[in-house]
Amino acid sequence: MSSNNPSNKNRLYWVDYTKGLAILGVILFHFFQNYPKEINLISILDRAGAKVGYAAVDIFFVMAGFTTSYILLLKNQKNNSEQLEVNWKDWVLKRINRIYPGYILAVVLSLLLYYFFGNRNIQLNFNLLLSIIGLAGYKFQAINPGFWFFTVILEAYLVIPLIFIICNSQPAKILWLGIIGGVITKIACILIDNKSQVYWYLLQNDFLGSYFFQLCLGLYWGIIFWKKSTFRKIDYTVVTGVFTTGLVVYLSMTWQKIDIIYMEGFDILFTPFFFIACYLIFELLSKQQKKIRYILELLSLLGIYSYQIYLIHQPLYFVLFGPLTKTFDVEPYLKVVIVMIITMVLLTFYLFTFIFLENFFWKQVLEKKN
User: Model confidence over 148-169: pLDDT tens digits?
Assistant: First the structure.
């Protein structure tokens, strides 16, 4: 998902910027989540970062739906058709061909990292086999907990053609289907014991239901944006009203010291607003591009390679944090800064290596085809 349009002329740069901001939120959240809790600040940033991480992942699924319907309509327009027409078999094969090579490469490199540099105990069992092929079950991923994202993306690609068929490609029906599906999932989570593995499976891990609303919202807005080249007044009005309502409830529960699970419904209330806000902010910043050119270029680069970054960053954290935190005998806050700088440098190098290997694979495949 590096681009929402093969034509540079019609490229929506705010899409890249938004994905770049989202993946930045994810890698920072995972940094504080996995960093040893040596000081209270790390625990605080971990708890606060969790909400940022959840919101960022929600944005990715909205973006996945948005770019899917937008690209399909652009392609159909070239074929003089304004209807969303999807050949299910061709669609699925192209999506699998697109996402699996990077995933398999990430699995191999992660296992090599653990073997040579880490101390993670990878057990040979059926769940490991499922994880290797990207279909981990409700017991979660055996290699990298972050790989659940791949499973849900795969589920989304399999379901998208069905959504178009069920809703007859009508945007309003797609949105309502997403709302109904999302609410049903949240109700199921509330009714299940939160200590159960099934609860966490339905809430976040490996199950599309938790992100079905976000996906359908993206499909809906992709169609709207293709028709209008912008969002409408009703979009801004509704999402602001829903967000405000959700925020009042959220703050009220916080004031009453009620335990809040963000993914039990607040994601549905907040995500549309966050997405629209990203669009408005980056459209505004694009007009100031000369002043913040390098920041936008960095966000764009992060967005273009957001899928690859998501796949590889967490295993590197698992391997690095133990040795690095033991190596530097300095003041704890300074140690956090040092470890973060070293980690980001190594992650950048690792990313370029990963991209090189991925491109090398595709080059070999294309040469064999020709």
Answer: 899 999 999 999 999 998 998 8
Q: Distance between CA atoms of 98 and 211, rounded to whole angstroms? A: 21
What residues have CB less than 8 Å from 4, skipping those under 6 apart? 11, 12, 15, 66, 67, 70, 71
* Residue 189 to residue 200: CA distance in whole angstroms: 8
Burial track 93-123 (b if 16+ CB lie within 10 A, e otherwise): eebeeebeebbebbbebbbebbeeebebeee
CA dist 14 and 24 (Å) reads: 15
Query: Residue 28's closest CA among 1, 51, 3?
Result: 51
pTM for this one? 0.90
> What are the tens digits of pLDDT across the range 327-337?
988 998 999 99
What would the pLDDT profile of 263-309 be if each residue is shown by its tens digit?
889 999 999 999 999 999 999 998 877 778 888 999 999 999 999 99
**Nearest residue to 217 (alpha-carbon basis) of 7, 351, 62:** 62
Read off the tokens for 168. Answer: 């007859």
Give the pair of three-digit tokens for residue 307. Answer: 């899928």
Residue 232 structure tokens:
């409408």
Distance CA 364, CA 367 (A): 5
Q: Is the dihedral of CA 89, 95, 98, 100 positive or negative?
A: negative
Whole-angstrom Cα distance, residue 345 to residue 226? 39
For 365, residues 6+ apart whose C-beta sits below 8 A from its C-beta are none
Distance CA 56, CA 45 (A): 16
366 pLDDT above the threshold of 70: no
Element (H or E) spanning 317, and its range?
Answer: helix 306-327
Q: Which of 273, 265, 269, 175 is nearest to 215 (CA)?
A: 175
Q: Classify residue 269 by burial, with Cβ atoms within 10 Å: 0-12, 13-18, 19+.
A: middle
Q: Which of 271, 123, 285 is nearest to 210 (CA)?
A: 271
State the Cα angle at 183 between 151 and 65, rounded to 5°: 45
Give the total residue count for the chain: 370
Question: Which amino acid belongs to residue 122?
Answer: I
